[in-house]
Amino acid sequence: MPTRKPVLPSDWVKHAQPIEGIERIEAWFHGNAYAMHRHDTYAIGRTLAGVQSFRYRHGQRNSLPGNTIVLHPDEPHDGRAGTEEGFQYRMIYVEPALFQEVLGGRALPFLEGGVTTDPRLAAATHALLPPVGYTLESLEQSDALAELANALAAATGTPARTAKGDFLAARRARDYLHAHRARVVTLDELEAATGRDRWSLSHDFRTFYGTSPYRYLTMRRLDAVRHLLLHGAALADASAAAGFADQSHMTRHFSRAFGLTPGRWLRTAGAVARLT
To answer: Is residue 194 within 8 Å of 138, Cβ to Cβ?
Structure first.
């Protein structure tokens, strides 16, 4: 009698109740999970089962159960199963601004390689990676983020001195972009709002927040799209409401940011309803 192959579960992504500045997921994928993409947050997580493989900074990375993954903002990466059995993981996406509240204008920590067994980072991420059904209290999250920011700085050797650049101007730019995220914002506006020339401001923003002002604005629009899609909006309506020129414009940016088309992203999120 021929051996029957085991039935693999469908791909799924479970989302925790969102709290401003941080997103938590737990997911299962087999085969190819995500195409190459980049987002403007840290992606910090732990592999729970299987082999989690991805390309990152021109190399192949493999995360095993118990490893900690730390991907820097705006660094391209993909995702796939390293074996036929698939992989399961938990991940948090943290806005660099939350770490800057702890770092106070120091350069953002950068972990070379993206995967680590450093016990300091394993301990610091533990409180932020519970099952998605667990709701983090505000103070609990704040304490855990402060511990993680300091652990990242220590593990990566981030200098204790403030980085070169105008941190206050970068923070004013971020606040302005956040307040006007549903419309086109010009460089002239940012210069007027911050008192900083566009080239210096662009450098400052990337130093302190890990991405460019334009990418930051685009990601806030994509956050709005995801929220609207999960609440039943049509793609065209969500695109328009979030300030994109049209649906195709939004879809191109969505795929580059998340490694999935809006339709596939929504299908994996929709699988949660069948699992919970």
So the answer is: no
